[in-house]
Amino acid sequence: MVDVEVSLRVDGTDHRLTVDTRTSVLDALRERLGNTSPKKGCDHGQCGACTVLLDGRRVNSCLALAVAHDGATVVTAAGLAPAGQLHPMQACFIRHDAFQCGYCTPGQIVSAVAMLAEAAAGWPSAVTADGAGRGGGAVVLDDDEIRERMSGNLCRCAAYANIVPAVAEMARR
Amino acid sequence: MTITPRAMGVAVDRFDGAAKVRGEARYAYEQPVDRPLYLYPLTAAVATGRIADIDCGAASAEPGVVAVLTYRNATRTAAIEDGELRILQSDEVAFRGQFIGGVVAETSEIARHAVSLVRVDYEERPHDVELREGRGDLRVPREVQPIFPMDTAEGDVDAALASAPVRVDQTYTTAWNNHNPIEPHTTIATWTGDRFTFYLSTQGVNGIQAAVAALFELGPDRVRVISPYVGGAFGSKARPHADVVLAALAARLVPDRPVKFALTRQQMFSQVGYRPPTVQRVRLGADAGGRLVALAHESIEPTSKLQEFAEHSTRATPTMYAAPNRRTRQRLAALDVPTPTIMRAPGEASGMFALESAMDEMAIACGLDPIEFRIRNDAQRHPHFGLPFSSRNLVACLREGARRFGWDGRDPTPGIRRTAGWLVGTGVAAATYPVLRLPGSMATIRVGPDERYTVLIAAADIGTGTWTALSQVAADALGVRVEQIDLRIGDTAYPKASNEGGSSGITSWGSAICEAADRLRDELARHGGAVPADGLEVTAAMPENPHISRYAMHAFGAQFAEVRVHAEIGEVRVRRQLGVFAVGRVVNPKTARSQLLGGMTMGLSMALHEQSVFDPRFAQVVTQDLATYHIASNADVGAVEVHWIDEDDPYVNPMGTKGVGEIGIVGAAAAIANAVHHATGVRVRDLPITLDKLLPAA
């Protein structure tokens, strides 16, 4: 067992903490910092419930070791909007009832917010037509694009057919 | 008596929505506790046998390890009937992966590593894990729901089949499915003085309380179970499983320290039950006019040697179709495997895949449209009970679904529609689920002079929307606005409640709340109609329903699917699903729709993806993660439409509800399999429908 000190900026607050080198970013957030917004579903990078923005990009925080991210900035679903307020994506999820048990939901929402930025930056997905999005142009997010880009986040309650219109509503704004 | 819907029927956003979308709703494992310890389990590495020796020396010496738990130092628990909960009581191993110990440590990383340092020597015994029809030890299971017998028979099936001009005789198989809620089973257990406190993810706090009280021979008042939010369940969190016992045994070793225990995704495949695989034979005989004269449905399934569970796959069959000669048979083999359990629509989900596939085959054999064939054989009275239905709208669902789906003019010829390399087909199947009420629920209502009503019941919200819908029920039961209701659930400190399961929640808990509301009105009348300064409180139990002996009570539905099958590689894509349901009154159209939608999508997942691959050599599921056990992802799902018909049923309960959690999955897999046949001409009778089974079509 080796302990190391790391700094993390989480949802706008700086933290200095000592972690076991085996500790994932997810466990550092949940068990050391008490931020349980990202969820542990598989601890294996397969379900997406632990999705956070790590230095601005969506990642599975269960697959990132805290020791490897000293100085990183983390945004969880709890930090997308100020305390007591909702990010517009969160309001869309409620309006479309895009969840049931809510356990995958913070990960879905962080993923959706990041995904809109990826499409706006012209990043293609597996279903993007050849040539689309090249040269800095945004990818138009139709339902198939949303389905494809949101498939790293599993929902066992299977709210997918509500998640797609929730994200599409945000994409139109 | 029935209550007047004012709040019921209104689409309300779920009350816990804001907390959930921010991730601030705290699930069991996330409850703040002082100085927690972490438990990691030691699991058996043989299928059956006994532990010859355990060496815990290296694990105990690891810095940060507080206790190593084995059968040698575990609390002796009472000899209760449920063998699944009998862990760490001897050196015996009943299945591979069974809990045989654990390490309690200051961090989860230390606990997990220390478990790898425990050395176990086994004396292995041969195991018996193969389900097959010729086994001499197949037995009739005990009833799951007392009103539905395991075997039914009427008339002379064999003679009617022999003389029927049109016959179908096929065997259908369904796969071992695992629930896999995204929140694994989690517990925080604390033993303080003479009592336990649990934060736990469960479908029923009272069932956990009863099991722990029995095992540890404690009064129920010394076991508090709190289940604030539940991250999905689908049946795996209905009965107590061994994870709760292991956490409790660990807590006994470290008094006053909360012990946190979360199963890994891998452990979820052996510890918390599963839908058992089934082998089902369906025989149908029809006359020249397309009327069923004989219907036989037989199913064999595995259970464990520790505890019996039967997936009652033939349960729906005597409810569905009028046939003068009928037989259902249900058989079990007890194997050296983990114990199966209820999973969404247990019985109906697997059984209606078989029956509704066979009905499609028979419609084709009779040269009839599959909707017309079902309508011709619709039962007017319950074929087995002989009772009238409290309401039965299967035909209305089929007709409404056909209209909305665009069924008219469908060419039944299989394998002839092709677009851009894909074969296109459509399919239909019926759905049903009984209106179940589980005994034992009570509710307390308190009202103060401020006209705010506190409603207490130890019910569960596993994502179904109980908080919202049951508040709507309480508002109408009391004749007040839903904003005046403060509903509190998920805690054994409240009056006891039956499990969330079998689509029985609103029926059981809502009936208790309606009864309490009646009592409160009586109390108010005694006080001259005004709430006294110190308020009023009443408690009532769920009353009997006098209509149960007079009517058969069931929900019905119709499932439609449009699929595309790739002509070269056999890939199946479900473009469209449409369901129409007759489920009585819908309390909250928003959350009810999500339940039906979720059920239909889980049905798609059952049809195309889900299979826990069991290796008989090692007696374990080898697909122990979400990559190799694929559940439907967003990209697997196309357009899904959910509809219901207006159905006014005054007999089922005071709300007029029939339940919506289960029926969405029923028939969904058959509709997809029938559509695949229509697209390709290949009849797949073995779930899941994977590419290899369709390659002959390409």
Textual characterization of the structure:
Chain A has 173 residues and is an alpha+beta fold. Chain A is 30% helix and 16% strand. Chain A has 2 domains: 3-79, Beta-grasp domain (Ubiquitin-like (UB roll), Roll), CATH 3.10.20.30; 88-172, [2Fe-2S]-binding domain (DNA polymerase, domain 1), CATH 1.10.150. Chain A contains 5 helices and 5 strands; from the N terminus they run ββαβββαααα. In chain A, strands 2-1-5-3-4 form a 5-stranded mixed β-sheet, sandwiched between helices. In chain A, β3 (51-54) and β4 (57-60) form a beta hairpin. In chain A, α2 packs across α5. Chain A is globular, with a radius of gyration of 16 Å. In chain A, 56% of the residues are buried. By secondary structure, chain B is of the alpha+beta class. Chain B folds into 3 domains: 35-126 and 181-264, Aldehyde Oxidoreductase, domain 4, CATH 3.30.365; 152-177 and 274-435 and 550-697, Aldehyde oxidase/xanthine dehydrogenase, molybdopterin binding domain (Aldehyde Oxidoreductase, domain 4); 438-541, 2-Layer Sandwich (Aldehyde Oxidoreductase, domain 4). Chain B is 23% helix and 24% strand. Chain B is built from 15 helices and 26 strands. Chain B has a 7-stranded mixed β-sheet with strand order 3-5-1-12-9-10-11. In chain B, α9 (348-366) crosses α10. The radius of gyration of chain B is 26 Å and the shape is globular. The N and C termini of chain B lie far apart (59 Å). The model of chain B has no long low-confidence stretch (mean pLDDT 97). The interface between A and B is large, with 57 and 67 residues.
